[in-house]
Amino acid sequence: MSERLKGKVAVVTGSDSGIGQATAEAFAREGADVAISYYRDRQGAEATRRKVEECGRRAVVVQCDQRDPSAVERLFREAGQELGTPDILVNNAGIDSTGKQVAEIPAEDWDREIRTNLYGPFYCCQQFIRQRRAAGGKGKIVNITSVHQTIPRVGSAGYDCAKGGLRNLTRTLALELAPDGINVNDIAPGMVLTPFNQKAKDDREAYEKQVQSIPLKRAAEPWEVARLAVYLASADADYATGQKLHP
C-alpha cells in the first residue's frame, strides 16, 4: 500500500476527538508522524496517540490553548524537538457558538469565539510558516473552516464571522506563500457526526430534521473529512492552493 505522507511530520490541532482525531489517524496510516494538540481532553488525546502508534508512527501529545501565542509557540517547539520540523499543519481546533443573538452576546463570549476560531489558526500559521521558511520552504496548510463561512445561522455570529475570516486568511496565505512552495487550502464541512453535533448523534428525530437540507440526506463521518485532508496534505494536491472543499 502506498503511503502518501511517508516521512512527513504533521501538527493537527484539536486532535483529541472528531475530525482532528480521524485526521491524525488517517495521516499516520499514510506514513506521517503526528503532533497531537488538545485543550482539556487529555484522555482523548492519549487515545489518538495510541491510534497513531498502532499505525507504526511516532506521536507527541501537547496541551495547548491556541488563544495564547506563547502556548502555540510551545506546541511547535515540542513538535519539532520530538518529531522534527513539521511539514503539514491542520488547523482543526475550534468551538461552536453559544446560540445567543448579536444584541445579547456578552463581549467575553464574542472574544472567546473569535480568538479560538480565528486567532488560534493565525498563531499556528505564523509558527508553521516561520519553521518551514527556516527549513527552505515547501509544506501544506489545511484549515478546517465550515459551510457556515458562507451560510450564516441565527445565534452564531461569532462562529460564522471567525470561519469566514479563516476562509479569507486561507486565500491571503495562498498568495503570500506561493513563492515558498507552501500550499494553503481549506475544508468547509457541513454537518459531521462529532461532539459538535452530539444532540443529533443522541436524538434520531433531531438528526433526521437536520439532514433534510443535505443532498445526500445524511451527515458526514469524521473519516470522510480526514480523507480530504490527506489529499490536500499530499503531493496529489501540489497544484491546489487557495481552494475550499465542501464535504
The CA-CA distance between the termini, in Å, is 25 Å
Q: Rg to the nearest angstrom?
A: 17 Å
Given helix and strand content, the structural type is: alpha/beta
Q: How many domains is the backbone divided into?
A: 1
Overall description:
The chain has a single domain, classed as NAD(P)-binding Rossmann-like Domain (Rossmann fold). The model has no long low-confidence stretch (mean pLDDT 94). It has a 7-stranded parallel sheet, sandwiched between helices. With 247 residues, the protein is of the alpha/beta class. Strand 1 (9-12), helix 1 and strand 2 form a beta-alpha-beta unit. The protein contains 8 helices and 7 strands, in the order βαβαβαβαβαβαααβ.
Overview features:
247 residues, single chain, 8 helices, Rossmann fold, alpha/beta
Please describe the topology of this protein.
Layout: E1 9-12, H1 18-29, E2 33-38, H2 42-54, E3 59-63, H3 69-83, E4 88-91, H4 107-134, E5 139-144, H5 157-177, E6 182-187, H6 198-202, H7 204-210, H8 222-233, E7 244-245
Parallel strand pairs: 1-2, 1-4, 2-3, 4-5, 5-6, 6-7
